[in-house]
Amino acid sequence: MSDITWTEAVRTKPRPGGGDGNGRDGGPVDSGTAPEPLTFTAHWHSESGIPAPRRVTVADDRTKADVAYRLVCEGTALLWRGDYQGARQLLRALGRRLDRLAPKPGATPAETFHRHRQARGHRARVLGMLLVVLEDDHGLALRRAPDVRAACTEAYGPPRRRTVVSLRELLGVIGAHEWRKKGVPIPAIGGHIHPHYGVFSPVRGEYVDLVAAATLPAAAQRPEATAFDLGTGTGVLAAVLAHRGLDRIVATDSSPRALACARDNVERLGIGEPVEVVDSGALYPEGRAALVVCNPPWLPAKPTSAVEQGVYDPGSAMLLAFLDGLAAHLEPGGEGWLILSDLAEHLGLRTRDELVGAFDAAGLRVVDRLDAKPVHPRASDTTDPLHAARAAEVTSLWRLAPAT
Ligand SMILES: C[S@@+](CC[C@H](N)C(=O)[O-])C[C@H]1O[C@@H](n2cnc3c(N)ncnc32)[C@H](O)[C@@H]1O
Fold first, then answer.
1. 154 vs 390: which has the higher pLDDT
2. Are the beta carbons of 282 and 327 closer than 8 angstroms?
3. Which residue puts its alpha carbon closest to atom 7 of ligand 1?
4. Where is this region: Disordered (predicted)?
5. With CB atoms 3.0 to 4.6 Å apart as the test, which of 49, 53, 107, 222 could cross-link to 77 if both were Cys?
6. Which are the contacts of 324, defined by CB distance < 8 A and separation ≥ 6?
7. List of residues 6+ apart from 74 with CB closer than 8 A
């Protein structure tokens, strides 16, 4: 990532009592001397890969929301130097202004979805223009700021140098830290899963219960049976399989954060022995298994950030790679369990015929299907433009086996 540069009026004369007259953040303090404009440079970080804004101006509690909104809409980022709670308030005020631009529904569900995503992308870009400085210890030197050092170290790794991030991204980092501390209760394993930042979280537990309830194929009930968990995320499904008594579970994921998270959960749960989290560099690990479990991202669209990689699968690439590789990776009598929401079907992004056609093309037959209705607040949110699709959504566990 690149650097970001901004100019800021700073008092440079020594204060009578010592110090350089500046706050720890280099921001102005009242030393009685005239502020001078100085240019600062810091590292720029954006999880969505957004380039460093070229126009940056300093903002604080005196900045009016309407002025701030005009500036961010014109492409000028605001580097916040005021009170932390004031910055959060400004972010909410900007969000309310953006909410007024909600797109009209499209002629088809797919069009509504694409308009909705476009609007969300615009919202994220505009809100991402309110910036804060993380000091070289990841600290936030703003009045009434919480201590974000642990949260930032978890999400970004050890601090190296002053870094500018968007406040919106930082709030996500803080939220993820809280979830990681608290954990998500998983009744199927009688314990908690602790999601890391940027790793798909099993807060919607219905699919976990499907994996806990589906009948294991005879091949997977034999001693020393191996299972694969492809795209393991937090490791939750590997943990369920270990709980169900499988002797060896090999878990893979393309995301380094997911691999670290799954290892952490396996260790916390004390199930280290049967579960191997491997960086295979491919979807399938070496060898064959009696059971292959895969819960791919369920919407065929491009993710715009690491956090979205658990939800969006461009061109259904992971889904198709799972199906196409399955027969060659199953032991005799083995099964593949595909966990998939049908939201893409309700949004007109994939048809049921296309899904079933992909099973056929991969030489697979359906042994059985278990369905669950998602229980999440958005399913009953009638103001959500995608409400109809979400309300109709069903998550299925497809038990697949080679056709011959
Ligand atoms: C919907 S999440 C499921 C996570 C976890 N299995 C669960 O059920 O909670 C999909 C996971 O697939 C991973 N993933 C996406 N594309 C992948 C690929 N090509 N190879 C391996 N993992 C992939 C993502 O990083 C994410 O962790």
1. 154
2. no
3. 233
4. 1-37
5. 53
6. 361, 362
7. none
CA-to-CA distance for 246 and 337, rounded, in angstroms? 15
List, for residues 317-349, the tens digit of each pLDDT value: 999 999 999 999 999 999 999 999 999 999 999
When mean pLDDT is compared across 73-87, 104-118, 217-231, 343-357, the lowest value belongs to 104-118
Q: What is the mean pLDDT of residues 306-312?
A: 83
Domains of the chain, each with CATH number or no CATH: 3-178 (no CATH), 183-402 (3.40.50.150)
Please tell me if the CB atom of residue 265 comes closer than 6 angstroms to any atom of ligand 1: no
Residue 291 phi/psi, 5-degree rounding, is: -145, 130
pTM to 2 decimal places: 0.90
146 in helix, strand or coil?
coil
pLDDT digits (tens, 9 = 90+) for 228-251: 999 999 999 999 999 999 999 999
Q: Kindly give the distance from the C-alpha atom of residue 299 to the centroid of ligand 1, in angstroms, as a whole number.
A: 12
State the virtual CA torsion across 121, 123, 129, 133 in degrees, nearest 10.
Answer: -80
Q: Which two tokens stand for residue 22?
A: 């500046």
| Rg of the chain in Å (alpha carbons) | 25
pLDDT average, residue stretch 361-368? 98
Q: Residue 333: CB partners within 8 Å, gap ≥ 6?
A: 217, 218, 219, 290
Residue 296 alpha carbon to ligand 1 centre in Å? 5
* C-alpha 254 to ligand 1 mean position (Å): 7
Measured in angstroms, how far is the CA atom of residue 12 from the centroid of ligand 1?
51
As a dihedral over the C-alpha atoms of residue 345, residue 348, residue 349, residue 351, rounded to 10 degrees, the angle is: 50
Cβ atoms of 267 and 242 within 8 Å: the answer is: no
Which of the listed residues 295, 337, 395 should we mutate to test ligand 1's pocket, taking the one with most ligand atoms within 8 A of CB?
A: 295
**Is beta strand 275-278 parallel, antiparallel or unpaired with respect to 184-186?**
unpaired
- Among 100-109, 113-122, 130-139, top mean pLDDT goes to 130-139
64-67 LR contacts (CB < 8 Å, sep 24+): 65/90, 65/93, 65/94, 65/97
Contact (CB, 8 A) for 388 and 105: no
Task: Quickly state the pLDDT bin for 20 (edges 50, 70, 90).
Answer: very low
